[in-house]
Specification:
202 residues; Porin; eight-stranded antiparallel beta barrel; 22% helix; elongated
Length: 202
């Protein structure tokens, strides 16, 4: 019931933003921020009742490895939320919502052989789900997959990662991950690596 309410709230926000006469990229940024805030409220409200969710807020840095427009989007800063179901075993279901903004562009316009312009990435939103495996308290590996939203197109993304928690109460998380978005542009995959530092909100 609670998540249905948040779902309706998000849909109303999407309609309101779509009706605004703003540039498309600005709409994507605002919608991503609102989605993250709404998701945080949903997770927080659920956790207050069940006490079974861990929620981490993480800023991250991403470096592009390969892309059709690599020079236009080589590096990005991002922010996201990780929701982990704390089932007291080493296998923990996990959800992740993140937004990344590419802050550097070499200002070179790239074309396909047909003369069409290759569209670079300004921002990128991911909604992923998967499993985190924690063989010991301080170390974990994870594998996530799900939709990735780039330039108004829905693509498929995978994200394996490894990291560690500190101190013993797992207040902080440091993580290194590999990201792959399939057939991002001109049938070429987008690949990158990311480093992030997360703080547990509850």
């Amino acid at each position: 019931m609670l998540f249905c309410c948040f779902n309706k709230l998000q849909l109303h926000c999407e309609k309101a933003i779509s009706a605004c006469a703003w540039p498309r990229q600005k709409k994507y940024v605002l919608l991503s921020v609102l989605t993250i805030l709404i998701s945080f409220c949903a997770f927080y409200s659920t956790a207050q009742v069940q006490k079974k969710f861990l929620l981490y807020l993480f800023p991250q840095f991403t470096n592009t490895i390969s892309d059709a427009t690599l020079g236009n989007n080589p590096r990005a800063w991002g922010i996201g939320l990780d929701g982990i179901y704390n089932n007291k075993t080493m296998f923990k279901p996990m959800l992740e919502l993140s937004y990344n903004f590419f802050f550097y562009d070499d200002d070179v316009l790239r074309y396909l052989p047909s003369g069409e312009i290759l569209e670079s990435i300004n921002g990128w939103t991911s909604l992923l789900a998967g499993l985190s495996v924690q063989p010991i308290r301080e170390v974990f590996v994870s594998f996530l997959a799900g939709p990735s939203f780039i330039n108004g197109v829905t693509l498929w993304e995978i994200k394996p990662a490894a990291g560690f928690c500190f101190p013993k109460n797992e207040r902080w998380q440091a993580r290194f991950s590999y990201n792959k978005v399939f057939k991002r542009e001109n049938n070429q995959d987008f690949t990158s690596w990311s480093i992030s530092l997360g703080i547990r909100l509850f």
